[in-house]
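Run log, item B.
One chain of 261 residues. Sequence copied directly from the ordering sheet:
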Amino acid sequence: MDLEKLCNEVKKLALSTGEYLKTEQTTLCKKDIELKGTRNYVTYIDKEAENRLVEGLRRLLPEAGFLTEEETVQFEQKELTWIIDPLDGTSNYIHGDPTFSVSIALMKKKEIILGVVHDPLAAHTYSATGTGKAFLNDNPITVSSHPTLVNGYIGFGIPYSLDERGEQILRNAMKQFRKCSFRIKGSAALEICYVAAGICDTFFHSGLSPWDVAAGTFILQRAGGKCTDFSGGDNYIFNKELVASNGVIHQEIMETIIQGN
């Protein structure tokens, strides 16, 4: 399998899906919006975008299975699995906010080998394959070298269901508000890529799903960053917890915000 050639085709598919999202956002009506849960929205656009991705990816790799957010295709355990989010940032999208993305990852057994995250309105496509570099469009990217919370630029998110541990982490973060800048953008896939590109120094979030993080965390690692779950382990794709950082600031984030020492 030629991963570079495959990645180029996946990027084309992400761009075409992004064009569809851009067009539909301008005509979206409130009657088209459904609720999956509190603050958790879905529209016909999510589902149609996912159908387009599945159809296109099947043409590229007929033997691969799928793990998808909208479950338009049944999950089957296969050696190769596409993990896709057709619209990461649906809440932003339905409110006319420009921060949303298309996220596509390819997993071989239990290892991610390709990642693409596309920001349709900014025309930014983040990508990585194998053990090579990470890219924003055609330019290599790398994480920041900022070493401390002081004057750090920190991304985070609040899950739909905020448990006691999540609330404690937010209280820990509040104690650091005078030291650094905190931002919530609303698209985990993009926010992880912001860390990969050196825009943000770290990003943390609980309550995430594999399609939110699979592509972005792979791109971040190829850009020199670090990913763990809240226990410091490597089960961040399936364990619903993520700390993504430039690596240098990681331990301080873990100690002061995640563990609250």
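Observations after the first pass:
- The first strand starts at residue 33 and ends at 37.
- Residues 3-25 form the longest helix (23 residues).
Flagged for discussion on Thursday.
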